[in-house]
Write a sequence for this structure.
């Protein structure tokens, strides 16, 4: 079967976006992993699938798959791309879009200048909701990683996040600590590992080692989680510009209630892929002589 897709990105966090409203889509974990490959496939951090809603008060169902093929609950940069995708492809004619995700409901608003504001819902802070192994809720938790005790915050934005405050994101050991935190046994569903540098009370820098992907150029839910963690710890005010390697988003949180995220979304190209063709990742193939 020939599947039409659009390649999009939000601050360099890139996506294969598939319309499952007008197309019949059957996905397998192994196929997603092959398509995500940057050398042997299309190349992306997440695949986003647009589906009809299961409830009358929603316009769409929005499903997210990491590059390793695993289905996850939420994706903030993806939500902004999702909004532009359904509007640009005339799947909806209103810039106000209500979607259901596996991590909860979101409201998306495409602004006249093309920026997208997303109501990301309430952060979940109780350890069992993240999920995180701790007996009671705290703003900082000790996490033993590779023999050292880190002080991390744990926040769910539908999906799980750990946030570690560092002096400099440029110097932060994202490549070494990231995978150890991602698969730490205290996070039973693994975790997205954020490294946050506080610039001042309204500006932070952030790098995120994403669950199921590795370090990405930006993570929208990671930006929300970092700002929530920074506000709860008394380090930040309620409106914060988050500078990620791929660009900036603005996060607002009054200290309770819903988190709002505003940032860009861009289309790169459209393409078709044959879902029945077997794509080889090539790594295990040798040439016999
Ligand atoms: N890039 C995303 C988050 C995607 C999902 C994440 N890797 C997970 O496993 O929870 C974002 O912009 O939020």
């Amino acid at each position: 079967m020939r599947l039409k897709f659009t390649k999009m990105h939000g601050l360099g966090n890139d996506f294969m976006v598939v319309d499952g409203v007008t197309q019949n889509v059957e996905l397998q974990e192994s196929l997603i992993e092959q398509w995500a490959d940057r050398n042997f496939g299309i190349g992306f951090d997440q695949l986003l699938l647009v589906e009809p809603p299961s409830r009358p008060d929603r316009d769409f169902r929005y499903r997210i798959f990491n590059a390793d093929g695993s289905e996850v609950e939420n994706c903030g940069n993806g939500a902004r791309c999702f909004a532009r995708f359904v509007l640009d492809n005339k799947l909806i004619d209103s810039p106000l879009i209500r979607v259901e995700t596996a991590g909860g409901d979101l409201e998306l608003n495409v602004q006249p200048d093309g920026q997208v504001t997303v109501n990301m819902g309430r952060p979940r802070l109780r350890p069992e909701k993240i999920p995180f192994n701790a007996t009671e809720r705290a703003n900082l938790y000790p996490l033993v990683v590779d023999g050292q005790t880190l002080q991390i915050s744990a926040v769910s934005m539908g999906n799980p996040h750990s946030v570690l405050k560092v002096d400099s994101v440029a110097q932060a050991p994202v490549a070494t600590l990231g995978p150890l935190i991602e698969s730490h046994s205290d996070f039973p569903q693994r975790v997205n590992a954020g490294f946050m540098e506080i610039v001042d009370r309204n500006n932070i820098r952030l790098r995120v080692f994403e669950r199921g992907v590795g370090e990405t150029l930006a993570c929208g839910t990671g930006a929300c989680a970092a700002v929530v963690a920074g506000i709860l710890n008394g380090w930040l005010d309620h409106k914060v510009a988050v500078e990620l390697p791929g660009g900036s988003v603005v996060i607002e949180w009054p200290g309770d209630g819903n988190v709002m995220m505003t940032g860009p979304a861009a289309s790169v190209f459209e393409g078709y892929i044959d879902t029945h063709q077997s794509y080889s990742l090539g790594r295990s193939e040798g040439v016999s002589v």
Q: What stands out?
A: The longest strand covers residues 2-10.
